[in-house]
Design brief:
By secondary structure, the protein is α+β, with helices and mostly antiparallel strands. It contains eleven helices and eight strands. It binds flavin-adenine dinucleotide (FAD).
Length: about 400
């Protein structure tokens, strides 16, 4: 499809295209542009319409619209990509594809991968064929990530990997992993790390899901025993993986902050959740038509204002980055902003629900209220995943040149 040069003309063309091609049953079903299909060998579409929507977008390169068309994208300029996301978001349509492939390893391969790696992996990400997970954290290496001990020893043209990862989100559902391994055992710890890609079906990999307080098992322990990985699957030079890893973390933190600031919920029961509508439903309106409970009203307004400001800030930051401004501690700042905002939002949701918001199981609670309790608990992890808030504050302080210690 030839795109109009002017983003506003494209907006109109896209509106017509969505009218004709986005299945009606999917309209107004999600509340942010970050919810959608995760792809992968084991994927199942929630409905035939979800599949149809995905296939229509893949055909146009619109699962990764801003990527080069040779890798399954649509060469969409950033201005048009923003229009695309706004158009889906304002209609409550799910993104055709979401996940770590698109937001983390894809951008890193575009920047750091060699031609063979780009040709091999990017089209499979854009087509939703392969789902990726992130093998960074280990039992003794979370905030102090450079302390990682999972080792890879070169044997001919293969690495032999032994060790353990932990908190690996969706490792049980993913097809490939991007993994930090130790390839040098002396000297500065950051200088002995390499960045490897491998198939989760490789012999020697064991995955064990971990059950969370929210009742879900979104992440796993992953064990490697003599896992053989072709040396050609290394991104960047041997022992230069720390640089690649940090670049990826900046994408992750920016994405986590941005997606969470957009107000997302992972649970299907809450995908169209709106704090204001919920409050109106519970408390009703006063004689002037306002939300009846004054203190909740104030907090709903504050929550919506914070959300709107976060969205504008994300947009301003992105525009600045595109215009060549230095990124500085931007991804850490966005991560803190988005995650803390999100925690306040779900806290408010649970308070609005009152005793119903503590529902865990049983018919006495609605599906939404049970989901609310789980989402509230899940949000506790937001200020840990992708690097804790304390660590983000350390990064910001360092970049601002603030003195060490309080
Ligand atoms: C929902 C979720 C999903 C995740 N998904 C993945 C994934 O897919 N892949 C992956 O590799 N990892 C993943 N993680 C792991 C995550 O990156 C780590 O949990 C995080 O980096 C913190 O490490 P840790 O858990 O070892 O805590 P620790 O590093 O042990 O930290 C414990 C506490 O000490 C504080 N602390 C530590 N060091 C400092 C310091 N220098 N200054 C001040 N305070 C400090 C921390 O802020 C924290 O409060 C996920 C985590 C969560 C919660």
């Amino acid at each position: 499809m030839k795109l109009a040069d002017d983003p506003e003309v494209f907006r109109d063309e896209l509106a017509d295209w969505l009218e004709a091609n986005a299945p009606r049953s999917l309209w107004n079903t999600v509340s942010t542009p970050f919810q959608g299909h995760w792809g992968g060998r084991n994927c199942a579409f929630p409905s035939p319409d979800h599949k149809l929507w995905f296939e229509r977008c893949v055909a146009l390169g619109w699962t990764a619209p801003h990527w080069p068309s040779e890798y399954g994208g649509a060469d969409m300029p950033t201005s048009h990509y923003r229009v695309f996301r706004e158009a889906l978001s304002s209609r409550g349509l799910p993104m055709p594809l979401v996940g770590t492939g698109l937001t983390m390893i894809g951008p890193i391969l575009l920047a750091e991968g060699n031609d063979a790696q780009k040709a091999e992996h990017l089209p499979k990400i854009a087509s939703g064929e392969i789902r990726w997970c992130q093998g960074y954290s280990e039992p003794g290496a979370g905030s102090d990530l450079a302390n990682l001990q999972c080792k890879a020893v070169l044997d001919g043209d293969e690495y032999v990997v032994n060790g353990q990862k932990i908190w690996t989100s969706h490792a049980d559902k993913s097809d490939w992993i991007f993994c930090l391994v130790r390839t040098k055992f002396d000297g500065k710890k950051q200088g002995g790390i390499s960045f490897l890609l491998f198939d989760m079906n490789t012999p020697g990999i064991t995955v064990r899901p971990i059950q969370l307080i929210s009742g879900a098992s979104p992440f796993c322990e992953v064990f490697f025993e003599d896992v053989r990985v072709p040396a050609s699957n290394r991104v960047g030079a041997e022992n230069d993986g720390w640089r690649v890893a940090k670049a990826l973390l900046a994408h992750e933190r920016g994405m986590v902050g941005e997606s969470i600031a957009a107000g997302g919920a992972r649970l299907p029961e809450l995908q169209a959740y709106n704090v204001r509508e919920h409050a109106l439903e519970v408390f009703g309106k006063d004689a002037t038509g306002r939300l009846a409970d004054a203190s909740i009203r104030e907090r709903v307004v504050q929550s919506e204002m914070d959300q709107a400001l976060a969205r504008i800030t994300v947009r301003r930051v992105n525009e600045g980055l595109k215009a060549g401004q230095s990124s500085g501690p931007v991804s850490s700042t966005l991560k803190i902003l988005g995650t803390e905002l999100n925690q306040r939002r779900w806290e408010l949701g649970v308070e609005i629900a009152g005793p119903d918001g503590l529902g865990w199981s049983g018919d006495a609670f609605s599906d939404r209220d049970r989901a609310l309790a789980r989402q509230w608990l899940r949000s506790k992890g937001n200020t840990i995943e992708g690097g804790s808030s304390e660590v983000q504050r350390n990064i910001i302080a360092r970049m601002l040149g603030l003195p060490k210690g309080a």
